């Protein structure tokens, strides 16, 4: 089976270098499936850029990447007493609850920590009114505060909220002048640095760094089999009827590769709601568009994708690829998995 990604390495690495130069203090985020590219690969790329710090999602990821990256590793998920124990002087924990401060200090005395605040995301972190108490408790526990962490929404207008949290930091008694932030644009970061020159602002970036040059990526899926079918013929696991004559292509790439998997999307506006309703109507009728482009068009699934392959209908009159040919595929990289990743 072959569901493969090819990277134009020179173009991609040029983008990484440009992003690094444009964002002083950059902290690459290396988490999940490594944005489709693999965590180990991204950790090596961060090292190649000469960066001193990466951020990972979980303690399991930290345990893995401490061996692949020579710098420090932040864990984005706040520490809990049940978190996997990873004792390494290069590890930086995140704290967002008062009760976790003495518990972490008891387990890992003198641990390095970030203090996360509860932004308008309302996901993790200290309420602004608890920061002074947190500062006192951290000092008593003997933990080393390395910075304030703010995880902001993806709506774009985050500068005012970032300003507010920087002001809160300066009145909180936390012993740090470093702020780690997400989802601020380059101009917003520069504005914040201009207004708060006494603070060190460090952006944590994942998607914009690793997936900022999608034109440097090419995903190809191999045609594994081709069958002639007639209208009304029953095929597939579910023995559905073929709606029109043509060919069924069996193409490498199924649910284990992320094909056919979809997260809920935010829908806004009349047009967006109309598209969502139309898509829902098609799904109710058993119709779903595949991510495979064949003879210039995206083609319909015959049935939901299988674990490692998909069955796609190519109508009569379209150019039929041969077994062994490859076809382009559209993917959502944060859920994609590839059989091979090659650099060109």
What's the layout of helices and strands?
Blueprint: E1 3-7, H1 9-22, E2 27-28, H2 39-48, E3 53-56, H3 59-65, E4 72-75, E5 91-95, H4 100-107, E6 112-117, H5 131-141, E7 144-150, H6 159-170, E8 178-181, H7 186-195, E9 200-205, H8 207-210, E10 217-229, E11 234-235, E12 240-241, E13 246-252, H9 269-284, E14 289-294, E15 297-301, E16 309-315, E17 326-328, E18 340-343
Parallel strand pairs: 1-18, 2-9, 3-4, 4-5, 5-6, 6-7, 7-8, 8-9
Antiparallel strand pairs: 1-10, 10-13, 10-17, 11-12, 13-16, 14-15, 15-16
Helix pairs in contact: 4-5
General description of the model:
With 344 residues, this protein is of the alpha/beta class. It has 2 domains: 203 residues, Alanine racemase (TIM Barrel), CATH 3.20.20; 129 residues, Lyase, Ornithine Decarboxylase, Chain A, domain 1, CATH 2.40.37. The protein is 27% helix and 27% strand. It contains 9 helices and 18 strands. Strands 1, 10, 13, 14, 15, 16, 17 and 18 form an 8-stranded mixed sheet that branches. The protein is elongated. The protein starts with a strand and ends with a strand.
């Amino acid at each position: 089976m072959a569901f493969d990604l090819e990277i134009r390495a020179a173009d991609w690495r040029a983008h990484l270098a440009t992003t690094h130069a444009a964002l002083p203090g950059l902290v690459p985020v290396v988490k999940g499936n490594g944005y489709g590219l693999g965590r180990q690969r991204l950790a090596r790329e961060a090292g190649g850029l000469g960066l001193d710090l990466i951020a990972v999602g979980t303690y399991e990821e930290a345990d893995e990447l401490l061996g692949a990256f020579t710098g420090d590793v932040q864990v984005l998920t706040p520490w809990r007493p049940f978190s996997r124990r990873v004792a390494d002087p290069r590890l930086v924990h995140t704290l967002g609850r008062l009760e976790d401060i003495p518990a972490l200090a008891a387990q890992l005395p003198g641990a390095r920590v970030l203090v996360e605040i509860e932004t308008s995301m309302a996901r993790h972190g200290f309420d602004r009114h608890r920061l002074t108490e947190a500062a006192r408790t951290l000092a008593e526990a003997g933990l080393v505060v390395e910075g304030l962490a703010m995880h902001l929404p993806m709506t774009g207008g985050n500068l005012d909220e970032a300003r507010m949290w920087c002001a809160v930091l300066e009145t909180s008694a936390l012993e740090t002048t470093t702020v780690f932030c997400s989802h601020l644009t380059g101009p917003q970061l520069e504005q914040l640095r201009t207004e708060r020159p006494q603070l060190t602002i460090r952006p944590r970036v994942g998607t914009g760094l690793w997936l900022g040059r999608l034109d440097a990526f090419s995903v190809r899926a191999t045609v594994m089999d081709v069958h002639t079918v007639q209208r009304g013929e029953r095929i597939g696991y579910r023995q559905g009827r073929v709606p029109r004559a043509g060919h069924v292509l069996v193409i490498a790439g199924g649910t284990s590769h992320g094909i056919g998997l979809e997260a809920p999307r935010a829908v806004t506006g009349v047009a967006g709601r109309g598209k969502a309703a139309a898509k829902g109507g098609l799904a109710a009728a058993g119709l779903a568009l595949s991510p495979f482009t064949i003879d210039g068009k995206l083609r319909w699934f015959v049935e939901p994708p299988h674990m490692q392959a998909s069955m796609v209908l190519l109508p009569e009159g379209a150019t039929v690829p041969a077994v062994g040919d490859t076809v382009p595929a559209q993917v959502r990289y944060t859920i994609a998995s590839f059989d091979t990743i090659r650099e060109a």
